[in-house]
Here is the input.
Amino acid sequence: MDQNAMGSMTATDVVVIGGGVIGLWTAWQLAAEGARVQLVDAAMPGQASAAGGGILAPIPPTGYSQALVPLLEDSLRRYPGSCEQLAMRTGISPEYWVSGCALYGHPVIETANPPSWLRDASALEGSRGSHPGAGVWLPHVAQIRPPRLLAALRAACDQLGCERWQKQVRSIDLQASRPVVCLADGQRLSTTHLVIAAGAWTGGLIPAAETRPVAGQMLALAAGDYAPASIVIESGRYLIPRKDGVVIVGSTLAIDRWSTEPDDADTRALRAFASQVHPTLAAAPQISCWCGIRPAPASLCDTPMIGPLAGREDVVLATGHYRLGLSLAPATAARVVQHVAGVTASA
Ligand SMILES: Cc1cc2nc3c(=O)[nH]c(=O)nc-3n(C[C@H](O)[C@H](O)[C@H](O)COP(=O)(O)OP(=O)(O)OC[C@H]3O[C@@H](n4cnc5c(N)ncnc54)[C@H](O)[C@@H]3O)c2cc1C
Here is the structure.
């Protein structure tokens, strides 16, 4: 890292604000392209990425906007190879698994060219839970295990020399020719490129990137051999079985809520949902319960904000991924890298 004449002003190629899945994946890819990367993360309680379920498809898998489809398809195509690379290089497997998904309560309209996650859909025999009608089997829906994906990304960043700092960004100064990141401890980081991936907190740093918090509560159950064989989504709620018998039950959707304190009534509702959909889960011991804060765009639409801030090619936003940030991380990172490379080449 270069120190400039002022001593406390540090110059680096790219500063990334945010160590959730979007910031980490982007930092990893920027570092892989040879950029000198500094990642600053405040370890805010309620980080969405660690709290997420890890289903790699929209939830529910129907009813998404058409603007989302190409970005998501690009991301899902990158997932298996990236996870393999992460596991090989870091020894930490993100547990990418095409477990398939049984979908109830959401009609799947047949189209000539369905997105990958709805391809080869077939009717499920019999009824389930509160839905007397048959469900739909989606064989291509995959999942990852978020805490393991994040651990692998952190290790991959470290291997490539990316500096990760646990510090809070107080503000961003865009008065000078280069962006300056002002840390709460008084330090100022001057950078060639700035990537803002601060999740639900982004709007507090850059008001033009208005974000809204949408809290989500989850449970983990120790189901052992009694776990469902695949992901089950029913009327917007879901069960996600992991390979070691843990089942994740999610989730609630509390718009404009910042609290990360699990709510007892929500816990009871999630347990009741799990038992109704997969009755053997009624006896499964609860391992843990948590809340995360999804970063939603102000309009609550499903398409994130990825690209330069108006009038500043050197400041790139990567936020507003709402319910789909884990799924969209690889394509988001690719777009940010492409932008930074383009600006660097034309400078
Ligand atoms: C309950 C739940 C279930 C979900 N399930 C899924 C799913 O199955 N599939 C899917 O694709 N998506 C899912 N999501 C959505 C997904 O988790 C999010 O869209 C994604 O994690 C957003 O990532 P992010 O990096 O933008 O934000 P975050 O993960 O929230 O990371 C933002 C980071 O910025 C840091 N930060 C904030 N402010 C500052 C500051 N001032 N200075 C320094 N650092 C700062 C924070 O410490 C934080 O680490 C789920 C989310 C929740 C809550």
In short: The two ends are 21 Å apart (CA to CA). The first strand starts at residue 2 and ends at 3.
